[in-house]
Amino acid sequence: MSNLVVTDVHEGVMTLTINRPDARNALDYATALALAQALDQMDGDDSVVIGILTGAGNSFSAGMDLKAFAKTGERPLVEGRGLGGLCEKGPQKPLIAAVEGYALAGGFELALACDLIVAAENATFGLPEVKRGLVASSGGLLRLPKRIPYHIAMEVILTGDMFPAQRAFEYGLINRLTEPGKALETARELAHVVAQNGPMAVRVAKEIVGRSENWRSDEMYDIQRPYITRVFTSEDAKEGATAFAEKRKPVWKGR
Q1: How do residues 4-25 score in pLDDT, each as one tens digit?
Q2: What is the chain's mean pLDDT, rounded?
Q3: Which pLDDT belongs to residue 69?
């Protein structure tokens, strides 16, 4: 795999690190493709329950590589999956964004595409596309108004100004706010809590949440039922109940 994205697996957690620190981890096409491949690796590894997306050095990601875009028109979009192979079609397994420094433009959209966000107190978010005559086309306009109050989201979107981590935390966008330099460590602590749970249950829970947004209220329980049945009839469900009764740690099989 390309060294543009570095992966590491430890106790059910895969860390995926965008590795272009000299460019504030901005995404060119090669990096987007490498990230998509790393996400596929995460989904295909039965030992992994959850992933963490972070950036090398002191930044999460500055988004699209504007130098590459200005020179060749290149955009870091993976067919069928969008920016970074993540924003339009995420992985089956949960993903935590561990943010230090800047998460701007497409970098912010990558974080928004994750299921949880951990950020350092001095981290900065933003959708500055309008300042460059562009729009946030990889989910920023679609996701942000659903995550924080509408008027606050519109301020971020229409001004293009920076959105400090502390303010984002106050509006509930961030799960954990940490000391500078501690975002990845704290994200790993959170990820290991999730990784102790039944991998099938974790995966299906994410799937239901993602798919149910447009389910009608009079149909949603019927639509949900096959997913729930798959979990409740699994070997892991039996193991979870048995381990509880025997007062021991479950041994999950992921099926």
Answers
A1: 999 999 999 999 999 999 999 9
A2: 95
A3: 76
The CB-side HSE value for 115 (13 A sphere, CA atoms) comes to 21
Q: Judge whether 32 and 77 are in contact, CB under 8 Å.
A: yes
Q: Tell whether 132 and 34 lie within a shared domain.
A: yes
Residue 251 lies in a domain: no
pLDDT recorded at residue 1:
52
Catalytic residue among 74, 79, 121, 129: 129
Residues 6+ apart with CB under 8 A from 71: none
Q: Are residues 84 and 206 in the same domain?
A: no
Q: Both 9 and 80 in a single domain?
A: yes
Q: How many domains does the chain have?
A: 2
pLDDT value of position 254: 86
Q: Judge whether 252 lies within some domain.
A: no
Residue 71 pLDDT more than 80?
Answer: no
Which of 109, 179, 239, 246 is flagged as catalytic?
Answer: 109
Tell me, yes or no, whether 69 and 183 share the same domain. yes
Q: Does 37 share its domain with 159?
A: yes
Residue 129 known to be catalytic: yes
**Residue 57 structural domain:** 5-195
Q: Output DSSP code: residue 234.
A: S
